[in-house]
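Here is the promised in-class demo. Please do not try to memorize the tokens; focus on the logic of going from shape to residues.
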């Protein structure tokens, strides 16, 4: 895929179409956990969007993947695209482990010496579960089909499957990739959280326009206008940070200092923006929007879940502080800001 605007417009439209169809088909059929959307997954596979960065022949880059992740998150599509492509697919290739060309993959990220890994996305629905057990700076990697695993179903607050998987007896391969895997995960969750925030703002604008109070739409009230403007400003701040992370990953690779810095910034900014925008959106909606069937709930609760995965905001804020202090010791901290690392 080239970087021309037309290509991105087509890709954006394709991802939006898949997202819209998925959302419309699931109305009235959401549950806890929310079932894996096999129809949407098939559409993504047919469009060649499930291995954009992990398959060298796809010609995709983090730019395309970020666009698709945001679109799917905006429409609350319940599929493990990030896990399949930028996490499990990439790690399996790095470890020299074969994975099937079709079907979703997932990542079980845990610690060596424990008996089980909690919070594994869509473990029961995956074609293969790729284990990544932290062992110092390295990872112990193995890939096992779910039929050979003991899986206890669970879900996050946004209804997405987050299962607990017992670590199997398998041949593990050591890979020096712990930091990059964490960074890739944080990057993907930032893109998804941004999609959720876009949806929250969009729904809030529509709700305040359509809902009347004292004979006029809510959006006519100055306090509501201020809240909407503030939300939009916060989301644009998040978008700027996310775009920096996309550019750094696309131009320098996920293993670069530039990506390290940019993903750290994005994680800190999104970590502050998500709760602010989520709270404002629910205040504007009043008592509605608090069940899994409501589109606002799907957007906001998933954004909240995503931003806490692959390291919390406080951890990344401390990291950002250390990067700035190191730059101050070595020269001009402004260089870190303007060069991205």
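The designed amino acids, position by position:
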């Amino acid at each position: 895929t080239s970087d021309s605007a037309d290509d991105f417009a087509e890709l954006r439209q394709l991802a939006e179409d898949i997202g819209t169809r998925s959302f419309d088909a699931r109305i009235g059929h959401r549950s806890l956990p929310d079932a894996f959307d096999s129809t949407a997954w098939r559409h993504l596979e047919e469009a060649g969007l499930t291995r954009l960065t992990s398959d060298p022949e796809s010609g995709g880059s983090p730019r395309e993947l970020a666009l698709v992740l945001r679109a799917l998150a905006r429409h609350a599509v319940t599929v493990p695209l990030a896990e399949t492509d930028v996490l499990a697919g990439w790690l399996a290739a790095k470890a020299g482990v074969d994975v099937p060309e079709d079907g979703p993959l997932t990542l079980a990220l845990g610690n060596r010496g424990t008996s089980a890994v909690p919070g594994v996305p869509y473990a029961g629905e995956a074609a293969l579960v790729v284990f990544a057990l932290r062992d110092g700076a390295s990872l112990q990697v193995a890939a096992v089909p779910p039929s050979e695993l003991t899986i206890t179903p669970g879900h996050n607050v946004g209804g997405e499957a987050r299962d607990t998987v017992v670590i199997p007896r398998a041949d593990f391969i050591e890979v020096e990739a712990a930091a990059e895997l964490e960074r890739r995960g944080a990057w993907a969750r930032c893109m998804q959280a941004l999609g959720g925030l876009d949806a929250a703002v969009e729904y809030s604008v529509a709700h305040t326009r359509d809902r009347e109070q004292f004979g006029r739409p809510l959006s006519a009230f100055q306090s509501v206008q201020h809240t909407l403007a503030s939300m939009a400003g916060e989301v644009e701040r998040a978008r700027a940070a996310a775009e920096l992370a996309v550019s750094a990953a696309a131009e320098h690779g996920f293993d670069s200092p530039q990506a390290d810095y940019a993903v750290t910034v994005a994680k800190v900014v999104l970590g502050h923006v998500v709760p602010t925008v989520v709270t404002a959106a629910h205040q504007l909606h009043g008592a509605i929007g608090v069940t899994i069937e409501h589109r606002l709930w799907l957007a906001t609760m998933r954004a909240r879940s995503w931003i806490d995965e692959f390291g919390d905001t406080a951890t990344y804020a401390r990291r950002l502080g250390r990067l700035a202090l190191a730059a101050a010791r070595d020269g001009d901290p402004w260089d870190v800001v303007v060069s991205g690392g």
